[in-house]
Amino acid sequence: MGAYRADDDYDYLFKVVLIGDSGVGKSNLLSRFTKNEFSLESKSTIGVEFATRSIHVDDKIVKAQIWDTAGQERYRAITSAYYRGAVGALLVYDVTRHVTFENVERWLKELRDHTDANVVIMFVGNKADLRHLRAVSTDDARAFAERENTFFVETSALESLNVDNAFTEVLTQIYHVVCRKTLEIGDDPAALPKGQTINIGGRDDVSAVKKAGCCSA
């Protein structure tokens, strides 16, 4: 699980969004996961960017299409289009800036207002390498995640700490949601044609099966 693949050979395509205040390190998390790169001179994202990476989950190849946008109010007009079809999200705050932690509740509400109840959410405290500047305790963040029923991890895009783990866990959990939904409705996944849309809920979903094959729980 977690092996990098650069080609288009995949079984499932899942849209995952990065959300959180500007400057919390969303773009560097994306760059570290998809290209294993980090830029100290990274500038704030303008508009929307996305990148892809594939991993193995069980015996399937799961491809993530990860969307990143500026966490600034003037770009909020893109909200509906940005969230449409997302089945997973990383909600990121900066452990050295308490205000970014205070704002996660608003981000979480917006995410849940625009996605299905089955969306998989990873709460991410980034810049954990800046230990001497920490302003948000791990215990406080974990308590928030438990209260909101989300996953939680602290990361450092600079040190590549837990970055792969964060994305891989989200993709693995999405895969398991899809498998459970398939079993619940009694569909035969082997009968799905290429490009069949995966419906894990009531929202418009751009995630899809590319090749026929069964989920294994």
Automatic annotation (TrEMBL):
UniProt main location, coarse: membrane
Subcellular location: Endomembrane system
SMART domains (UniProt xref): RAB (SM00175), RAN (SM00176), RAS (SM00173), RHO (SM00174)
Bilayer topology: Lipid-anchor
Superkingdom classification of source: Eukaryota
A GO-annotated cellular component: endomembrane system
A single GO molecular function term of this UniProt record: GTPase activity
Record keywords, A-Z: GTP-binding, Lipoprotein, Membrane, Nucleotide-binding, Prenylation
Entry's family note: Belongs to the small GTPase superfamily. Rab family.
Protein name per the record: Ras-related protein RABA1f
Organism: Lupinus angustifolius
